Structure formats: C-alpha cells, structure tokens
What we know:
Helix content is 37%, strand content 14%. It is built from 18 helices and 14 strands.
Amino acid sequence: MIDLKSQNLPPVSQTGPLSGFRVIDLTVALAGPYCTLLLGGMGAEIIKIEAPGGSDISRNNPPFIGKDGLNYGKKGPDDLSVSTLDRQRNKKSVTLDLKTEQGRTLFYDLIKHADVLVENFSEGTTQRLGISYETLRELHPGLVYASISAFGANDSHIGIKGMDIIVQALSGVMEINGFADSPPCRVGLPIADLTAPHYALSGILAALLHRSKTGLGQHVEVNMLDSLAALLAVEHVDLMYEPGIPPRSGNHHDRLTPFGVYPSRDGYVAIAASIDLWAHDLFRAMGRQDLVTDPRSATRGARSVHAAQINQWIEEWTCVLSSEDIVQQLTARSVAAVPVKTPHAVLNDPAMLARGAIMPLRHPSIPSSVNTVAPGLPIHFSACKTGYDRYAEALGQSNDEIYVDLLQLSPETIQTLKDQSII
C-alpha cells in the first residue's frame, strides 16, 4: 500500500476544478442563478447577461443594503438587494438587449466562445428571442445548453407562473408537510427553487463529460416540478395510502418510530432511534424496561403501527427534562439526539463558518454596521480551491472585458452600442 503521507504531493491548486470553462448565464430569480453560482464557485467563468437597466427580478427583492444600512424599502438608487449581492458573486456582469437584431448578433458571437449556457426563461421565450437550443447548436455544436423550467414538457400547468409555492403545491410535497390534523404546509425553504439547480448542475457536468468523449454538446432539461416529485417518490408515499397512514405526520416519521421532534422542559429535541437496539436503549433511558418486550414497541414494524402511543410515552418523559439532560442521557447510550437549533444559531455557528458552509457576505456597498451571511460552497476538493471570492459586480461592470477583450469590438462600435441602448 502506498504511504501517501510520504509522497511529495502537489500543492492545492488556486483555481477550481471547472477553471477554463466559460458559462453564459441568462437566468433570473433563484433557481437559475443558484445553479450558475455553484458553477462559479467551482471555478467556471460566469458571464451574467442582463438587459440594459437590469432584468433579473431578484434585484427588487427586499431587504436592501445601502449607505443608510439595511432597509426593506429602497431608499436610494444605489441601494442593492441582498439577493443580488448573494447570487451575483463570482459572476461577470454584462448588459445586452437580446430583443434587438444587433444584440442577438453580438450574442451569437459570444456563444462561439462559451462551453455552457444556462437559462430559465418562461415557456417559448428562447424561441421568440432566437436563442433556442435548436438555433444555437447550429452555431456551436459543442455547446451544453441547460434549461431550468417550472414544469415539464407538455405539462398541463405550463402558462402558470412557476413560483416555488406553486410548484410545492403541485408536487405533493406540501400535502405531506405539516401535521395530520392541520392543513398542508409549505416547506419553509424554497425547496423547489433550490432542488432543481442541483439536478441541473449534475446534468451540466455529465454533459461536459460526454462532450469530452464525443465533442458534441446537448440540451440538458430540468424542471422544478419533476425535481420535487422525484424526492416524493423516495419515501414511497403511495404505499402509505393503502393501510390508511396519514400523508402528514408532523414532527414524527411513523414508519421509523421513535424518530421525531419531542418537547423538552426548555425547548425541543430531535431523536432518531429507528432500529430495535436504539429504541430499546431509549426505553431504558426512560426507565421503561417494560417497553423493550411490549408487543406494541418491541419491534420496528409494531412501533410503526403504534407510533402515536409510543410518541406519547416518549413526550411524557422528555417534557419534564431539559434538552441538555435528554441529549446527555441518550448520547451516553449511543442514541442519536440533539437540540433543535434556531436558524440564527446555525448561521452564527463557528464550525459552519470555518468549513465554508456559510460565509460573511462582503461587498464595498455594505456598511460595517451590517453583518449578514450568505451560502458558501459545501463541496470540498483535495486538489482544488473552491468558493466565492469575487464580489457581485455592478450592472455591466464587465462590458469592456467581454466586448473589447474577448469579442475584439472597437471603441467606436462600443460607443455606438451604448448610444443605442443595446449594451
């Protein structure tokens, strides 16, 4: 066996694993920009294209940050949305009016220099603009063209605005979230907006790998509704209806009982004791040795049938103890138990910050009085540096770099394009 410690291994590269790949970013809102943010964090060059004046709707998302600090209503023209400061990191900002013939001609030239295009326009927009995959593959057969939409092809809901809450409602996820005697409940995070870009990222990377073998690009299509439905199928929810198991089980997962969130004297704890060994150790910690052999609680299958009664017994024990006491007693028996943490505590967790899962949001426009965090890149490589080390650029800040340095346009041409509001 090779002793890696004794080898003269190369130092970690200062560039990411996707360094050298150029991505054209035509995305807006969250699902698309989050996908390109991930690509940028892994080293790809991201060229974010917006119409002159700005066309990404997230620019109007409160809260805003400006010279007066944090506010929820734009107070001045220089105030910037926190969403923009977050999602535009590691991206070059370029302005271009794709609705004009000259703008499309410039875009076609730019595409020839790109490896990937990511878009999340509404249905039919790319065809109307003349930038569909069918059009662009004629110009660049090696282009990987990724589309993130709300609904799948031929879906009956095409035409409805594909907002996260709409997709959650249609996906079935909302119906299984919440308590059995309560209405369906929205997942607190925009889970559809955040799940689809991860599938898109996987598709893009696979398509780039395929291109390395064949030289040909392809169209990668991901939609938010299918992404959530795929998650729903993981739990085989369909099999719960036949025996009459309620689709919503609140803070408990009845099939894995004991597995849920229980009240303590000073908060809540999450306990996971699904297999017999762990469940029996939990019962012993409770002082309920009888439950180890009770037919209702001795085996996993029986516990799923009698989940309500077992959870009641556990709550009678947890509610008189502090969260710390519960966690100490259970972890001493190798039963998984932790306190339920607040988002504020997580976003200020030194370990999370040290690992880069979250990171301070920095920008020259953010006053020192404002402290906020943004997502980091929770993907780590042993031989490459990854992460977000570039501020969100001002709108059109990279115009000269792209139009002059890359496309070799003359200063006179650039001025004319500006005068005509094409860039």
